[in-house]
Every structure is written in C-alpha cells, then in structure tokens.
Design a protein that fits this description.
single chain, 136 residues, mainly alpha, 75% helix, globular
Length: 136
C-alpha cells in the first residue's frame, strides 16, 4: 500500500515539473508558478527530500512576492510553513509565524477569506499521536 502512495507522489511531482517547464517556456499563466512550485515542494517533502522541499517552497514565496501575486499564490507561503514545520520544527517557529502573518495580510487585502482556516491550521502544532497509535 505504501508504494501506491509513493507512486502517486512521484507522478504528481513529474506532472508539476512538466507544467512548470511549460509555463516558463511559453510564458503562459505565470501566476501558476508559485502553485506549481508549492506542489513540488510538498511532493518532495512527502518523498523525503527535505532540502529540495525547502528550496522549492522558498522559491514559490519569492516568485509570489516578486510578481505581487495574491490569492492565486497563497499556497506558496502555506507550503513553506508546512515544510519548515516538518523539517525544522519548533526552531523555525518565528520564521513560520512571519510567513503566515504575511500570508494573512495578503489574504485579508485580497478578500481571500477562504484561506483563513488554512493559515490557522498551519499555525497549530502538529497533533500528537494518541497512546494507542504510539504502541503500534
């Protein structure tokens, strides 16, 4: 079963990389770049590529800010917060909060209220496994 999940992640990464290459080559839909980079970062994180995940998430946020993108790119800071939390944990707390504050400002300014819950969830500490799950 685990192999099936890994296969889907690998497929998603290949598709996102291909779509990003097409966006960059043809200059079509450049506002999709942060979304694709964020998707790639999450795939890399799930595949155990911590360094690649962090680099991709940081690039996604950099592209978002450089282009002044708003709602269509809010997955970028959310991905960065997720990658930082997964790879650096509490040590990245201040940076995660700064990323999420900026995302909150963008969401508020653009009226993207739908992102409020996602931002709050990104702030929440990861759930601890219940005692029964720890025994396994």
């Amino acid at each position: 079963m685990a192999g099936a999940g890994t296969g889907r992640i690998a497929d998603a990464l290949v598709r996102a990389e291909s779509n990003l290459a097409a966006v960059r080559e043809h200059g079509i839909g450049p506002y999709f770049e942060p979304l694709l980079l964020a998707t790639m970062a999450r795939c890399r994180l799930a595949g155990g590529e911590s360094d690649g995940a962090l680099a991709g998430a940081e690039e996604a946020v950099d592209v978002m800010h450089a282009r002044g993108l708003t709602t269509c790119a809010l997955s970028a800071p959310l991905a960065l917060a997720q990658v930082l939390a997964a790879t650096q944990g509490a040590a990245a707390g201040e940076r995660i909060e700064a990323v999420l504050v900026r995302a909150e400002e963008v969401a508020h300014a653009s009226g993207a209220r739908a992102f409020a819950l996602q931002i709050e969830r990104a702030r929440a500490p990861p759930a601890r496994p219940r005692a029964a799950e720890q025994v396994r």
